[in-house]
Amino acid sequence: MAKDVGTLIEKAREELSKLTRLKASSTVGAIKDEKGWHISVEMLEKKSIPDQMDILAIYEALLDDEGNLLGFERKSMRTRMETVKE
Known about the structure:
CATH topology: Nuclear Transport Factor 2, Chain: A
GO biological process, one term: gas vesicle organization
Distance between the termini: 35 Å
Radius of gyration: 13 Å
Pfam families: GvpO
Strand content: over 45%
Order of helices and strands: HEEEE
Protein name: Gas vesicle protein
Number of domains: 1
Strand order of the largest sheet: 1-2-3-4
CATH architecture: Roll
Shape: elongated
Helix content: 10-25%
CATH class: Alpha Beta
Number of helices: 1
Number of strands: 4
């Protein structure tokens, strides 16, 4: 039975934190396609002082409908003070 998107997001955050040993900061996207669920999570790569110099990264986790992690990848990195342009 397929899980709801909220459950899949929580699973992605847990799995990414466990595998990377990084702290999940925020969820930035969730999209389903023929491969599965692509969940994008911003993770704290490096804590700095001042906070504006923290290094953040966007990781994408790929999960099936049951919440099984099929793969993950770091997509980008930035300092907290940098704005993201798309």
